[in-house]
Design goal:
- The protein has 9 helices and 10 strands.
- By secondary structure, the chain is of the alpha/beta class.
- The protein has a 7-stranded parallel sheet with strand order 1-10-9-6-2-3-5.
- The protein is globular, with a radius of gyration of 18 Å.
- It binds 2-phosphoglycolic acid.
């Protein structure tokens, strides 16, 4: 895992958007996995800026969102589909037929989940997956105890997730109790992963997933098993990490590898 500690939310967002833009420039038909929540809002704003100012081309990019609440129609203001259109898609030149968000109001969730997995495979697999982390250590809606081999499926939300996400709803009782979510297994199949985290609220869980044991009780810790993970944090989210000095040294001195090779 490569850990980058940014000074602020703004810097974290700019670094993350830079990583995504670089991948799109490298591969115009990138398959991009997307996340929702407060964390990536700044990253999406930066991407819109790069689109407007530098003409970053999204027209050939295919996107797959991580999750969606069961029961919410795509145009519901609390749906993740709505979130994605408001925060990113409507501001860039994405091709609507290349946008995939799980359908919360599908009549047959099980069949839908199998179809969604098949679409990811048909697109050639996810090249770069964006992730946030929940207060309970979840990635997507893979709540504590989720199998590391899990595919896209319906998952019951953990009480802490319902409380955390109630801030977006009128009242806690309105938060759906189930979600369709990519599995930990689906996420681990992505070629590259970019995890973004900000805020003091996440400091403990960040220390657990990066420096603690691999455990299904903190599903983000599964990323320790992945080949290519970038974690971009703000200083508050990084405040409980023990090896910050090392991470910062690596960030500032990566270029030395070339010098060492040429010695
Ligand atoms: P947040 O959610 O970005 O709103 O904190 C992250 C998550 O639950 O994955």
């Amino acid at each position: 895992m490569e850990i980058t500690i940014a000074r602020s939310y703004e810097e974290m967002s700019a670094i993350s958007a830079g990583i995504i833009a670089r991948e799109i420039k490298r591969k115009h038909d990138l398959v991009l996995g997307l996340a929702t929540g407060d964390t990536p809002v700044g990253t999406y704003k930066e991407l819109v800026k790069i689109f407007k100012e530098e003409g970053l081309d999204f027209s050939k990019v295919t996107t797959f969102n991580l999750d969606e609440y069961v029961g919410l129609p795509p145009l519901h203001k609390n749906s993740y589909n709505y979130f994605m259109w408001e925060n990113l898609f409507k501001h860039i030149n994405i091709t609507p037929s290349k946008v995939f968000v799980p359908q919360g109001n599908t009549e047959d969730p099980e069949e839908f989940c199998a179809w969604y997995e098949a679409q990811i495979k048909k697109a050639g697999g996810i090249d770069l997956q964006i992730l946030g982390i929940g207060g309970d250590g979840h990635i997507a809606f893979n709540e504590p105890g989720s199998s590391f081999a899990s595919p896209t499926r319906v998952k019951a939300l953990f009480e802490q997730t319902i409380v955390d996400n109630s801030r977006f709803f009128d009242k806690k009782e309105d938060v759906p109790r189930f979600a369709i979510t990519m599995g930990v297994g689906t996420i681990l199949e992505a070629k590259k992963i970019l995890m973004i985290v900000n805020g003091k609220r996440k400091a403990d869980v960040v220390a657990q997933f990066i420096e603690g044991p691999v455990t299904s009780q903190i599903t983000a810790s599964a990323l320790q098993l992945h080949r290519h993970v970038n974690v971009v944090l703000d200083a508050e989210a990084a405040s409980r990490l023990k090896r910050t000095e090392y991470y910062n040294w690596v960030r500032d001195n990566k270029h030395l590898v070339q010098k060492e090779v040429g010695r």
